């Protein structure tokens, strides 16, 4: 695949310290490679190879992870084995791409003369937070939202064998305080997403150095630099919805607490005047603060301030618009004629998906916020 190299890496947990990482061996002749850069979600990657062609060190590590028992040459019999934590790291021109991280699944298919094809399903390090939960009731009163986010991660990493290698030392205050209560058992990943989604919230991601990054808005305005147009768009894949729930000029947010019912309503004056009174209602579990519900109502309305555009173009890389020219969160331009005249979108990238052919050619798929 030319510019791409792939390696299997062992992540060894420590009882009271961050884990260590050790390269087990390369994945030779990778095929079916794809990777994704997603906004406020775990990144993804998929890689395939012929299992018989793997180095013995890689075969042994995989064998130990998926098998209940393995052969012990010293005893001449089979012994039980505890599965190690394994990751797949993907480099493009020496740069670790999004989606490199823990292996979450394997698929073994085929056989015969072609050999068995092994496919790795991989997620970015963000995925590790899906294994973490509030280890005790967590009560935050007027605490900076960035401090809450960092503490959600660190309260789990402070437990024996709990450190995932995520560095929160670089997190700085946002200037926005929140009051939140998370009972024991609440999932850390889900709470991070929810905390960032409200008005005045934040985008979050884990960078290639495994540092937790928080920002009011991830990405840059690259509309003057990155354009998807007839030079490189092979399929626009455009879907537009004006159905109920897709567009709204008034939004009502409710909680689900019968003993302490709350409501928040927001209006979009400009859209009211142009499209009329288009309403939408959603309920939110676990909300006990009026300010929190106000934030949800504002977001409901903001996300529905015009037609829902599902533009998912596929493009081939060109100068200024290749696989590394932009990332999730950046604002880029898409300009094309779908048969009704030139249509121009300038929107943030929700997802970038890169597919690599066996000869190394890349195709870029984009989803917009």
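-> sequence recovered:
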């Amino acid at each position: 695949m030319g510019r791409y190299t792939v390696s299997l890496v062992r992540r060894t947990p420590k009882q009271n310290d961050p884990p260590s990482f050790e390269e087990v061996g390369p994945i030779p002749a990778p095929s079916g490679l794809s990777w994704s850069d997603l906004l406020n979600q775990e990144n993804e990657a998929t890689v395939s190879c012929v299992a018989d062609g793997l180095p013995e060190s890689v075969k042994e590590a995989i064998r130990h992870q998926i098998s209940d028992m393995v052969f012990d040459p010293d005893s001449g019999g089979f012994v039980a084995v505890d599965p190690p934590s394994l990751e797949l790291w993907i480099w493009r021109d020496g740069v670790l791409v999004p989606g490199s991280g823990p292996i979450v699944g394997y698929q073994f298919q085929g056989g015969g003369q072609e050999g068995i094809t092994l496919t790795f399903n991989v997620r970015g390090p963000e995925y590790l937070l899906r294994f973490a939960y509030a280890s005790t009731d967590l009560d935050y009163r007027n605490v900076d939202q960035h401090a809450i986010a960092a503490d959600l991660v660190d309260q789990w990493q402070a437990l024996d064998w709990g450190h995932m290698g995520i560095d929160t030392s670089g997190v700085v205050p946002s200037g926005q305080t929140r009051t939140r209560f998370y009972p024991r058992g609440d999932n850390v990943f889900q709470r991070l997403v929810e905390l960032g989604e409200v008005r005045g919230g934040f985008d979050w991601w884990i960078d290639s150095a495994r540092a937790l990054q928080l920002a009011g808005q991830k990405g840059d305005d690259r509309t003057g630099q990155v354009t998807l147009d007839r030079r490189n768009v092979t399929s626009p894949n455009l879907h537009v919805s004006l159905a109920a729930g897709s567009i709204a000029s008034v939004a009502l947010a409710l909680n689900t607490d019968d003993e302490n019912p709350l409501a928040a309503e927001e209006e979009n004056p400009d859209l009211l005047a142009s499209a009329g009174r288009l309403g939408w209602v959603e309920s939110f579990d676990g909300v006990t603060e009026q300010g929190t519900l106000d934030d949800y109502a504002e977001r409901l309305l903001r996300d529905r301030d015009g037609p829902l555009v599902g533009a998912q173009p596929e493009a081939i890389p060109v100068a200024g618009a290749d696989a590394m020219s932009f990332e999730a969160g950046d604002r880029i331009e898409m300009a094309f004629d779908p048969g009704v005249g030139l249509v121009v979108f300038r929107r943030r990238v929700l997802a970038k998906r890169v597919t690599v052919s066996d000869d190394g050619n890349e195709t870029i798929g984009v989803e917009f916020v």
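The chain has a mean pLDDT of 91.
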